[in-house]
Amino acid sequence: MRRAIVVAGPMGSGKTTFCRSTIAANPGITLISRDDILNELFGTVWLNPYTGQHQYGEKVMWERVATALQAEHAFIILDTWNGSREERSKITKNLRSFGADWIAGWRFITPEAIGLQWYIERESVGKDEKQIRALKSPWRAEDYHHDYLLFHAHGVSEDQGFNVVHDINPQQCSFLRYLK
Asked: Rounded to two decimals, what is the model's pTM?
């Protein structure tokens, strides 16, 4: 059986940290992260949208997914941007075309205030004091609030091609129960 998990949630909701914890405890699972690929290729995820770098990163991501799913008992976690229902449906369709028999969705339901705090902490790493103050500005909180509401308005559900969808609040749960 070839299994895949698609991670979905707003910025700062703990998706990548949760995935890395899952992989650390389960080395037989492969993590494929679009952000990691962009960082590997270009040194950042903050790219000019007109350069084609995001599209190239996505192409590399799908090549890695196809390779990983060739194994008879493949198990991958795909951590990629998927803000809309249409994007998630496209992702599950692609995963099935590469041989995934079972696909779970991990819908992150981290409380907004916690997600904003984590987002600010993550983004402030390596920044100078002026940049840190800017990240903590009310504009940033409003921007995060807008993205948070948009994500939750585009619900993650089984009709997008998932066999199962699990709600995950990384503050309150262990990944072990969501691998089935």
From this structure: 0.86
